[in-house]
Structure formats: C-alpha cells, structure tokens
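Researcher: Final request for today, and then I'll write up notes for the group meeting. The sequence and the SMILES for calcium ion follow.
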Amino acid sequence: MNSRRQIGPSTPRPEPSAGFTLLEVMVALAIFSVGLLAIFSMHVSSLRTNTVARGVTENVTAAAAKAEQLLALAYDDPQLDAGLHEPGPEEDGIDNNLDGRIDEDGERGHLNLRWVVQQDCLGVDFQGHKCVRLEVTSVVNASRTRDIRINFIKTERL
Ligand SMILES: [Ca+2]
Ligand SMILES: [Ca+2]
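Model: Predicted protein-calcium ion complex:
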C-alpha cells in the first residue's frame, strides 16, 4: 500500500510585496511628525529657560561684585552715606555691558545698579551699622525687566 498522497500541481504562492504601501508610509510619517514636534517644543522651552538662567546669573554676579566692593569700603565712605545711590553706568563699579571692562568711557548696557543705605536700621540698641539694599535691574526686552536684590549689613567694627 502506498500511504503517500499524490500531490497535485500546487498553485503558485503570491510573491511577498517588496517595500511599503502608501498607507504604511503615511502612518509612519504621521508618527514621526508627532515625535519631531515634541522634540522641537522641548528645544524651544530649553532655549527660553537658558535665557532666563543667563539673565539671573548676570544680575547676581553684578550684584555680588558690587556688594563685595561696598563691604570692602571704610565705614564712613561716601558710597555708604545714608540714602539712595544711583551712579551712572560709567561710575557704578560693575560691567554693565558685559564686555569684560568695568566703567569704561561711554559704557552703556542692560544692567542698572542702585543701592539704598539706611543708618542703624536695627534700632538704637545696635548702633554702628548700616543696612544696604542693593538692586540690579536688567532690561530683558522693551517691556520686561528682571530684578535681583541683595541685602547686607555693614558694621562699624569687625
Ligand atoms: Ca563694560
Ligand atoms: Ca559700569
């Protein structure tokens, strides 16, 4: 007995199609576009955050530099007289235009500095000190500014 079956001529199998259909390509492009938009949005957000951080760093650096200058002065220096001090950019002791030079001729820039000195602000029991409130303002654009304030106390005796 022959248990083998007789196999007739088989029908030809269809060839697998090479490449992608138009629908597959469109779906892939749609998914890719959504991912690309998310990355672009993240990049724009990152640029904004970096700009804000840079501005804050500039202001803090300028304010800290001026605070160090004022702390190093003698207690009776005219820059520590009571009242508002608002020197121009050519004589404020900071680099207003961030070109590496301080108070050069014709210096202008987006950083502005002022400070207020108050004599014996902690009361009569603690005489011989001055409270200094230092403020650096930077112009971000025509309608926005950014402020950094540093408060410190200058004592007559150290
Ligand atoms: Ca400068
Ligand atoms: Ca200056």
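Model: The chain has one helix and four strands. Residues 22-72 form the longest helix (51 residues).
Researcher: Thanks, that's everything.
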